[in-house]
Amino acid sequence: MKYFLFTFICTTMCWGQMQKEQLNLMPWPKEISNQQGKFNIDKDFAINLNAPNSERLTIATTKFLRRLDGRTGIFFKNGFALINHPNSTVQINVKSIAKLDLQQDESYQLTIAPNQIIINANTDSGAIYGLETLLQTLQNTNDSFYFPTLSIQDSPRFRWRGLMIDAARHFMPVDVIKRNLDAMAAVKLNVFHWHLVDDQGWRIEMKSLKQLHLKASDGLYYTQEQIKDVVQYAGNLGIMVVPEIDVPGHASAILTAIPEIGSTPNKKYSLERNAGVFNPTLDPTNPKTYQIINQIFDEVCPLFPGKYFHIGGDENEGKEWDANPKIQKFKKENNLATNHDLQTYFTMKLIPILKKHNKLLMGWEEIMTKDMSKDAIIHAWRGPNEGLKAGESLANAAKNGYQTVLSNGYYLDLVLGIDTYYNTDPINKELNLSSEIQKNILGGEATIWAELVTPLTIDSRIWPRTAAIAERLWSDSSVNNLKNMKKRLIPVTDRLEELGITHIRNKGVILRNIANYQDIQALEKFSNICEPLKLYTRNKGGTEYQMYSPLTLFADACTPDASDAEEFNSLVELYNANHANNEAKSKIINQLQSWISTHKELVQLQKNAPIISGFLPLSKNLNDLSQQLINKLQDKSYDAELAKKMLENCKSKDYADVELAIIPGLVGLIQ
Amino acid sequence: MKYFLFTFICTTMCWGQMQKEQLNLMPWPKEISNQQGKFNIDKDFAINLNAPNSERLTIATTKFLRRLDGRTGIFFKNGFALINHPNSTVQINVKSIAKLDLQQDESYQLTIAPNQIIINANTDSGAIYGLETLLQTLQNTNDSFYFPTLSIQDSPRFRWRGLMIDAARHFMPVDVIKRNLDAMAAVKLNVFHWHLVDDQGWRIEMKSLKQLHLKASDGLYYTQEQIKDVVQYAGNLGIMVVPEIDVPGHASAILTAIPEIGSTPNKKYSLERNAGVFNPTLDPTNPKTYQIINQIFDEVCPLFPGKYFHIGGDENEGKEWDANPKIQKFKKENNLATNHDLQTYFTMKLIPILKKHNKLLMGWEEIMTKDMSKDAIIHAWRGPNEGLKAGESLANAAKNGYQTVLSNGYYLDLVLGIDTYYNTDPINKELNLSSEIQKNILGGEATIWAELVTPLTIDSRIWPRTAAIAERLWSDSSVNNLKNMKKRLIPVTDRLEELGITHIRNKGVILRNIANYQDIQALEKFSNICEPLKLYTRNKGGTEYQMYSPLTLFADACTPDASDAEEFNSLVELYNANHANNEAKSKIINQLQSWISTHKELVQLQKNAPIISGFLPLSKNLNDLSQQLINKLQDKSYDAELAKKMLENCKSKDYADVELAIIPGLVGLIQ
Fold first, then answer.
1. How many C-beta neighbours within 10 Å does residue A218 have?
2. Do B522 and B585 share a domain, yes or no?
3. Cys staple from A191: which of A162, A634, B246, B650, with CB 3.0 to 4.6 Å?
4. Is the predicted pLDDT of residue B18 greater than 50, yes or no?
5. Residue A38 is part of which domain span?
6. Which residues make Cβ contacts (< 8 Å) with residue A325, sequence separation at least 6?
7. Which range, of A9-23, A507-521, B135-149, B284-298, averages the lowest pLDDT?
8. Which of A116, A138, A154 is the last residue before a domain boundary?
9. In CATH, what number is assigned to the domain containing residue A98?
10. For the residues B116-132, what does the mean pLDDT come to?
11. Which chain B residues contact residue A506 at CB under 8 A?
12. Quick one: how far is CA A225 from the chain centroid?
């Protein structure tokens, strides 16, 4: 049988070419060449480290061995990294230990020969990337596992490759953070931005201002020991942690604990339960505000060894400032014409406080005014949704001489399709930025705002889409073939499971709950063509869901890039290109029929599962249209007007916060 | 439709009776009466606490609300417990805060009326049990959720209802522990016994003897902050934590760090990677041994507020003692005739060290000798496997005046069927113990030894079987109908998912890995009739698996009580009772055919999934026999001798550490 397979392969294409095609590396490396050959994996597989004593590399090697033996089922004799074993099959050669400051050398070289694997890197971080790449090359026959022989030279395009997790709106326990750090490392991201404070919660244990976590967290916060643990865990993956304490706006939580530094005198602030932009704002005219911030930063800064500190600074509409005569007076006295100027006055005061701790100030783009220090890092987030051109604010920051990071286009909580994210390049070619200005663009950062995600669902919002963003930030801009990326994404998506990412497994958990533990096959089928409402159309006005509302609903089981939708939409395109394509036609009919039978099953299920009532009408709409379309395709009685009405019903976004992802296909069949 | 349903129900049985039948409570309460009525759940559902300020109850109420809205999808207006709201629909009345010392009053009273729910309890712990029972009563129609009206009086049979988790053999991170604590609370267990030290690892961060966690944990240990966090988390669930530091045997880890207190002079000890009973043992004749233990206990005891401290004391074969002339001499000088006496000498010295910290010494049954203090708690673990009668050592301890806890019969790592565990009663009626002696029996404890479990699989070994043990320990001994228990167990098993227990979801993770991310349906079907090898037949001699060997194999996906086996075995019984039963016959044939087609699919899958090779022969054996048996049932050509041979092949335990759980059914068809 093996002989047969080999023959088949060799007659269709050359071995080397096939291997390169099969390699599902992501992010795609800078240079790669491969030959016809295999490094076979057996129980003698062993890794020797020629490196300065690096905890990071030791841990990474152990994890690599566990993942490799987990996948292959091979019982390795050596379960840990070796030292002084020059005859081991894998040799890792490292010169120095990386300091995680964005200046570290992240390059590596990976060579797989039939009898030896060598990873060379200047730093241990580079070597860890080499191990991740090596693992991604794993191949198998029907009875063995091997690495294909090849040679890779690799280094990143951007220095800042980040993921931001909002732990304020919904608290994310340490294990959620850690598994996502592991996944980040697997796709070579190197900055974890931890959004720790917002209107809905203060998430840091404080020793000196205990009221912050005691009064403003609902008991859900990280102890300082946990923060240190996460920072160390991240560091061992080559990831720098950037904390964010959002000021002066988004301050409901801070002011719940310390109302005296709020901009409305004598106001009793309370934790915000809704989503949106709220008024509570620190008083920039009150010396006590700076004293408190000073005290907070004195305690929080030492927890984070990295040199960046994010102070938020976004979405302050200044309503409390406008309403407070004392603040108005202060503005006049200090020649601060606008609230924007007043905020700059505020932000500038934070710079020396942070400098004391050797930290650079980073903030969302609103902090950028003509008076803002050029030392500040500008985090660009606004774009078409906010009436700006994509990449415009990033470009402005870069032109103004600021180092800058892009998040516009990378907002995962908008639950857009992966194409959007993949096509967003920190360097927008249309803007024709000079290479000098491009140097100010540090990179980009995916962001997951947590109004509508919980520990149960957050992974399915972050992954796999963040792997595509990671490739955009690591690989050359010429690596941009969507179809090829999607092919390579499949195994990357799957293998995230071994890092504990729950994007696949938790879907079943949610569906079983919805089904009241009846069989979930029909629910699964329907969920594979539904997507949660995009942009901010779920949770209209921010008040439909409170932070304690259930997120165990159908929309939470559905994901962007609904798995069965693209195939159907493509089938219809194929069929419309050539109506004589009977194979496509019959597949389409099968698909339409399957939705009719899925609906029947859902009707049955619903009898003992009330939550299904919420989206059963949408399934009914699809059922009705499917029947019409089958009639049309089979040249039976078809009512075009009725079908159009039914299509409109199928476009509804009124049911259970989901929408059908097969509308393009349905439209294609009607036209 | 609703009207129709109601009519149907009322004509078949009375409403009250049906409800009681439908209630899937576990553990089953002491007294229960119910009436025809419903308490409907809507967004106004709110819980008011009339209680002393109890963090425990506040947290439990919040968790209850999240679970209830997670299940129902209802958006409650109040996401947290209320105070001073006498008109809230749920009233919880509590007199005092429980101290977790086994003396606390755990009783509660739950009354559900159409318009109000009342929980009365002397302590907050009792009230929390009331909330768990309330959640278990949840019912639904096709479009709403409700609690049936009823009245429950409840309190436990035994005071000690424990679960032991071994975090030494495979380290279990904090999140694994926490989710299992939540699950324990859901079935009213109240003692978490944390096995923290063994030959394979020391899992406690030490401030004074850092070498212990630095040299003897592979970097996998709990920080003291994490331990405090777990203890507090458990306490908030009404669970006492009992730590175990296993001495003087099982000491490879301790001696790796501190070899000078070992019983073999100048030996270089190292962490054990295999499973079994090993020689490294503390030297009871060396004063430094006690000094070190003193130092350890001084640091570890304050982390655990409970009054019990487990010192292990098991499986010391004394081989190092026999080989050391100095120790032999010491025995003679001190009139210690046997190693058992020497161990008692050792253990007695620990009692005052623990007393200093107000702790009682607990140990495995080997610590019980004539000279052992009656203050010690005896943990009975040996039974038929060790040549003793079931319950005998527990009875001996009780007769000798020791307080005692049963674990023999509750060893989850033996992966036996649930019947065995459920039928094990701490009070073995056959032994005719007087009620005075019975008083010494504190209760029982399920144990999961972790040689062959990892964070990925541990939940599927603990659950759902531990729920049955929990019922044995809580409910009256007359609650012992296996069939009824299994029926009630189903929803309890399902709902463990909402607490994060991974027993269902992680099966898919393992199977997807085995299938190399091809479709897993066939694998799932086959896994539903296979069970991991029982007792200690997996990992023969303890050396097939090292602690770093892969546990992502087929045996790890399979569970005891294979889900499809019981039905098949019963079908065959039914058919054999009456060969004219054509329905049973045709179901059996269908089942046999499905195994034939499953095998075909597995053969296909295996072409791209090497791990399947390991158990494909077993599937082949079943395929062959199934074909023969179909022939027999259909009166076609059948070779009885050949079938017998094939049956023997199906009984094989040689493939991938699993066995077929349908052997009784297959045997039934052959005879």
1. 17
2. yes
3. A162
4. no
5. 2-154
6. none
7. A9-23
8. A154
9. 3.30.379.10
10. 98
11. 505
12. 26
Tokens of B384: 């038929």
pLDDT at A558: 98
Q: Are residues B424 and B561 in the same domain?
A: no
Are A58 and A197 in the same domain?
no
The model's pTM is: 0.96
- A105-135 pLDDT per residue, tens: 999 999 999 999 999 999 999 999 999 999 9
pLDDT at A619: 98
Which chain A residue lies closest to B613 (C-alpha atoms)?
A143
Comparing C-alpha atoms, which of A407, A451, A553 is closest to residue A171? A451
Q: Residue-wise over B256-276: b if at least 16 C-beta within 10 A, else e?
A: bbbbebbbbeeeebebbbbbe
For chain B, the average pLDDT equals 95
Single-letter residue type at B188? K
Residues B246 and B265 in one domain: yes
In this prediction, residue A34 carries a pLDDT of 82
ipTM reported for the complex surpasses 0.85:
yes
What single string gives the DSSP state of each residue in A68-106? HHHHH----S--S-EES-TTSSEEEEEEEPPPSSS-S--
- As a whole-number percent, the residues of chain B with pLDDT over 90 amount to 93
Q: Is A3 exposed, middle or buried (0-12, 13-18, 19+ CB in 10 A)?
A: exposed
Residue-wise pLDDT for B152-186, tens only, equals: 999 999 999 999 999 999 999 999 999 999 999 99
Mean pLDDT in residue range A242-269: 97
Q: How many domains is chain B partitioned into structurally?
A: 3
CA-based nearest distance A638→chain B, Å: 32
Token readout for B93 is 């009345």
Same domain, A275 and A384: yes
Q: How confident is the model at residue A7 (pLDDT cuts 50, 70, 90)?
A: very low
pLDDT digits (tens, 9 = 90+) for A46-68: 999 999 999 999 999 999 999 99
CA distance B408 to chain A (A): 32
As given in the structure block, the two tokens for residue A31 are 């240079």
Distance separating alpha carbons of residues B26 and B186, to the nearest angstrom: 9
Report which secondary-structure segment, H or E, holds B33.
Answer: strand B31-40
Question: Which tokens belong to A336?
Answer: 């601060």
From B206's Cα to the closest Cα of chain A, the distance in A is 15
A21 — pLDDT class (breaks 50, 70, 90): low
Q: Do A552 and B70 lie within an 8 Å CB cutoff? A: yes
Chain-chain contact of A142 with B610 (C-beta, under 8 angstroms): yes
By the 10 Å C-beta count (0-12 exposed, 13-18 middle, 19+ buried), B589 is classed as middle
For residue B226, list chain A residues with Cβ-Cβ distance below 8 A: 225
Q: Are residues A141 and A177 in the same domain?
A: no
**From the list A62, A505, A547, which residue is nearest B508 (CB)?**
A505
Choose, from A55, A106, A272, A315, the residue flagged as catalytic: A315
B55 as an active site residue: the answer is: no
Which tokens sit at B13? 């049985």
Mutate to test the interface with A, among B42, B175, B493 (most CBs of A within 10 A): B175
B59 contacts on A by Cβ (under 8 Å): 219
Residue whose C-alpha is closest to residue B376's, from B295, B453, B312: B312
User: For the residues B86-102, what does the mean pLDDT come to?
Assistant: 96
- State the CATH number of the domain containing residue B355: 3.20.20.80
Contacts with B523 from chain A: Cβ below 8 Å:
none
Domain end position, chosen among A134, A154, A174: A154
Q: How far is A144 from chain B (nearest CA, A)?
A: 6
Indicate whether B420 and B559 sit together in one domain. no
In this prediction, residue A36 has a pLDDT band, given cuts at 50, 70 and 90, of confident
Instruction: Give CA torsion, residues B232, B233, B239, B243, to 10 deg.
Output: -60
- Residues B110, B249 share a domain: no
